[in-house]
Design goal:
mainly alpha; 16 helices; 73% helix; 0% strand; globular; Bact_Transport_Assoc
Length: 401
């Protein structure tokens, strides 16, 4: 089997740039859940003790970051699925067996991440949803589009119906979770490792597993859209699609403006709907996540079409090429800080955001250094070796100075 890495000339650098950009958004979105027991806090997603600056930052997150980046990652996973399968097929490899093994390894990474580090893991969800993608590989574009748009409209339609509910089911559930907040703070700040793991196994992980179905449903249509557009050649022949990309850019911008504007109007109670303000914000955060996902992706693709901008954005590509390693590293850093300095529930969102930006700059520097010496990121290398069942050379033959 030809297990050699994709050559620099064959790499789709704009995908790496988009992945790197998405990782910046991912760490910002995940930061509050790293530092606070958000799973058991009210739906406003604010720390127990917060300042007005935290409230403004939460508003900005809801408008421009929350749900906007897991959608990008999901879209890219679908595109990556097609590229992996297509390249394997061109080499005459057993594509279904390879991809199934690839998903099993990803599931293993995800479960280790979920159980031993952090309840917000997305890798195991991607592995589960990825199994369904195998069924679509030989389906027509019409079939793929029909399923993608049907699932997307169905899920978002159900979410929009929440705007008609006069009460907030989530807030009613949170009333009985005040004790869990205290237990979480004690376990994360003062508990030894067995107490920490005991709390997570008893309360956090069962909650995640019980909601797995609702995590897969919104991800699958984004997988399908990424898969479909990659199969059409969007990333290999981007120049041919530039007029269409510009139309999507304008359309997504036009749709995003009113959806994003609704978030502060509801959050500050300028507008009142039949539902609670928190439910209204939740719905419009989700809807704007889809439109801004399209806006962010097309913006980066248009920028990458320009040589000067492509060079400017290349630092993001270093992080994007090691997306799996950098994603898990972000968890290690924040979990380590919490355990080492006993700061769970004590850090403001503003301080957390500053830490995220510093960490991401360090990840750019570290990823560039690593990729100058090694072909893959460390977890990407393990993933590839286990997928192909063979040890693949990691170190580059000639180290770049």
């Amino acid at each position: 089997m030809n297990l050699f890495p994709v050559s620099e000339g064959d790499r789709i650098h704009q995908l790496d740039v988009i992945r790197g950009f998405a990782l910046l958004g991912i760490v910002l979105v995940n930061m509050p859940t790293f530092l606070h027991p958000m799973l058991f806090l009210p739906a406003d997603a604010l720390p127990i003790q917060h300042t007005r600056a935290d409230e403004w930052l939460r508003l900005l997150f809801n408008m421009f970051i929350q749900t906007k980046f897991y959608t990008i990652f999901s879209f890219l996973f679908g595109a990556g699925f097609y590229l992996f399968m297509h390249r394997a097929e061109q080499k005459g490899l057993p594509i279904k067996r390879l991809f199934a093994r690839r998903l099993w390894v990803l599931l293993g990474f995800g479960m280790l991440h979920l159980i031993f580090l952090w309840y917000g893991d997305i890798l195991h969800t991607y592995a589960i949803a990825g199994c369904i993608l195998l069924w679509f590989y030989y389906k027509s574009q019409k079939t793929v589009h029909a399923w993608a748009w049907s699932l997307l409209i169905f899920y978002q339609g159900l979410m929009t119906l929440l705007l008609l509910l006069p009460s907030d089911p989530a807030s009613q559930q949170m009333e009985g979770k005040a004790g869990l907040v205290v237990m979480a703070l004690q376990a994360y700040n003062e508990g030894a490792w067995p107490q920490w793991m005991g709390f997570r196994l008893a309360y956090e992980i069962p909650y995640v597993i019980s909601n797995e179905f609702f995590a897969v449903i919104p991800i699958l249509p984004l997988f399908l859209l990424g898969f479909s557009l990659a199969r059409q050649g969007l990333f290999h022949r981007t120049a041919d699609f530039l007029p269409a990309i510009r139309r999507v850019w304008w359309t997504s911008l036009f749709l995003s403006l009113p959806l994003v504007a609704m978030i502060p109007l509801l959050q500050e109670s300028v507008l009142v709907l039949p539902s609670s303000a928190d439910t209204g914000v939740l719905v419009f955060v989700g809807l704007s996540g889809l439109t801004l996902c399209g806006f962010y992706i097309t913006s980066l693709m248009l920028l990458c079409a320009d040589e000067a901008w492509r060079k400017t954005l290349m630092p993001l590509a270093f992080v994007g090429r090691m997306a799996l390693s950098n994603y898990v590293l972000q968890t290690f850093v924040f979990t380590g800080m919490v355990r080492l300095f006993h700061i769970y529930g004590k850090i403001s969102m503003l301080t957390g955001a500053i830490i995220c930006l510093i960490l991401f700059v360090l990840q750019i520097i570290g990823s560039r250094w690593w990729l100058a010496r090694y072909t893959y990121g460390p977890l990407e290398w393990v993933w590839r070796c286990l997928t192909y069942g063979s040890r693949i050379p990691l170190r580059k033959k000639q180290v770049l100075k």
